[in-house]
């Protein structure tokens, strides 16, 4: 079972930067769209069973539209290429309700945000929220070139304000170099909330740089899996609500096993990044492989993502 979905109309497609288009999605029949908060994403259900997650970039107070931005990924497995080449104004798309695994701490005295490439999307939404709240924030925005930087104009249009600070880093332009993430993080006050969204090496550098900070003040969003799913099998999964149990065989995830046995479990990304397949753990110890749960949440072993995580114990009882 895919997560609950509904149809939206593509009102317009806009060029945002080299290789990046934005899509303005509207509800049918003048309805309001489900509310969302900064950092949220929606899943697009594409032909051939492809599901891709995209952050919402418009202000969270808007209920009449969702805006997403799609980077045409050179290594696209079909998602971004299909959207760029085939989705046009007037088309109907099927999407999920918004889900937020990367929420903004609105009460923070100061927020430091680091974006790499298309990783600007959730952060741009957060910035609009921080501006609306009059909060202090600072953005480090890294792209290879200025031409590849989406939302540059609206960011610059925020103009000089006392509560914000913009730093652009175009590493492949003359004199450019990679951002020193460790130095940027070290410059942030201890009470600051820190956010990073971008390519894997950037996120790994950010995690190293923030290792000694309070985990509750460190926030990351990954676009794709970092670890391979657990397919070692060899354990029993028990569905507490019905009492049925299945052996998870080698080569299969828990979700594979449930679907193979006709169990209608919710899922979307299948990569441990969207949170749709989360299940409460009543007994046993998961082998966590996802990028949704925080370190503390993983250590508590109270829930797990069944699309990618396995079991360290011979028996796992789930609240399903
Ligand atoms: S389906 Fe996305 S985290 Fe499992």
Q: How do the strands and helices of this protein lay out in sequence?
A:
Blueprint: E1 5-17, E2 20-26, E3 41-45, E4 51-55, E5 66-71, H1 79-86, E6 92-96, E7 110-116, H2 120-133, E8 136-143, H3 152-157, E9 164-170, H4 181-187, E10 193-197, H5 200-209, E11 218-221, E12 235-239, E13 245-248, H6 254-260, E14 278-283, E15 286-287, H7 295-300, E16 303-305, E17 310-311, E18 315-318
Parallel strand pairs: 7-8, 7-10, 8-9, 10-11, 12-18
Antiparallel strand pairs: 1-2, 1-6, 2-5, 3-4, 3-6, 12-13, 14-16, 14-18, 15-17
Helix pairs in contact: 4-5
The protein binds FE2/S2 (inorganic) cluster.
FE2/S2 (inorganic) cluster is lined by residues 267-270, 272-277, 290, 292, 305, 307.
Structural summary, described in words:
This protein is of the alpha/beta class. Helix content is 18%, strand content 31%. The chain is built from 7 helices and 18 strands. The strands form 4 sheets. Strands 4-3-6-1-2-5 form a 6-stranded antiparallel β-sheet, covered by helices on one side. Strand 12 (235-239) and strand 13 (245-248) form a beta hairpin. Helix 4 (181-187) packs across helix 5 (200-209). The longest helix has 14 residues, at 120-133. The chain is globular and about 60 Å long. The two termini are 13 Å apart. The structure holds FE2/S2 (inorganic) cluster.
